Amino acid sequence: MIKKISDFNLDNKKVLIRCDFNVPIKEGKITDDNRIKESLDTINYALDNGAKVILFSHLGRVKSEEDKEKLSLRVVADKLSFYLNTKVGFISETRGNKVEEAISNMKKRDVVLIENTRFEDLNNKAESKNDEMLGKYWASLGDIFINDAFGTAHRSHASNVGIASNLEDVGVGFLVEKELVNFEKVLTDPDKPISLILGGAKVSDKIGVIENLVHKVDNILIGGGMAYTFLKAKGYEIGNSILEEDYIEFCKEMLVKYPDKIKLPIDNILAKSIDDDLGFYSTIDANKEDMMGVDIGDETVKNFLEILNNSNTILWNGPLGIFEHSSFSKGTKEVLRGIVNEDKTIIVGGGDTAAAVISLGFKDAVTHISTGGGASLELLEGKELPGIKVLDK
User: Fold this and answer.
1) Of 86, 109, 252, 368, which is most buried by a Cβ count within 10 Å?
2) Active site residue ranges
3) Is residue 318 assigned to a domain?
4) 211 and 125, same structural domain?
5) Average pLDDT for consecutive 10-residue bins of the chain (393 residues)?
């Protein structure tokens, strides 16, 4: 059984919390602090209950000493101090005397943030390869470990699996609890009919999801770049659209086995390149050899919405067009607009899909937006997440 942070007596305990502060930073400033905000409930709960709070997180990929200069978590400590309305002590090391002294001097309701855990990747990838001694060391700094970083739950790192393996009192924070509750509901006991929307660039990224869910869902609606490998498998001209030739046979097999379940675009928007400002409408059977598909068309939107409006549960992973480009975001936006006002359970996968929903203004109109792209994909594939499994004592 996996415990929750609310199951522990936190008073005067040193509580290690693995957060996901992997936020975008430009010119030393955080450009999107949503992940920081998502961590506040768990941190505030620990502080309100008298804990000494020690925070861990990674930021970016650290491959050289030069990376350390631009990937320090100091800027995150400043932002956390603002949101928590208390001083967050920043420890500019990941281990050693400075870390140990700072923690030994903590009082109840103090909070410190340890430097980017991936700085340890310069030490033979100690963090990313879950170095045994590093996990033991970090675990020795506290009494209780709480994993509230869903975005790394599919990874076996020293700062999640390593710490949890070396402490008896471990559990999840409110963010991870919310993620698990939402996904468990739709994957094990959904309100049917249930439809799955898959987009994004590649079929290869979604094979596991298709194979795991094709027997469980009523419809699979496919858009984005991955739709063109399916369309090629049906014999359509796809021009310069994204194509994964190695997966054409997989697409053919799925279309033969589940012809009534898998739904593909019937029209689309074409462009010479993704940098074009203007797209051209075309039905699928009239696509041009020198152009590429960049969005689904209006008739596809209508077809998709007819299915989705008759669905009680919707899982969505991957945008239906190049949503970052305003000219090619219409399909994703229209489908979102068509479903959010309905009384439905709508679970949105992380990564690009979450970014699309938030940037297009629909954050508060869906049931749940996952904070973990890779982790949500692996849950949809039916896999266990090592960062969660290790908490089941």
Assistant:
1) 368
2) 35, 202, 351, 374
3) yes
4) no
5) 97 98 92 93 98 98 94 97 97 97 97 98 97 98 98 97 98 97 92 96 94 96 97 96 96 97 97 89 92 97 97 95 91 92 85 82 89 91 96 93
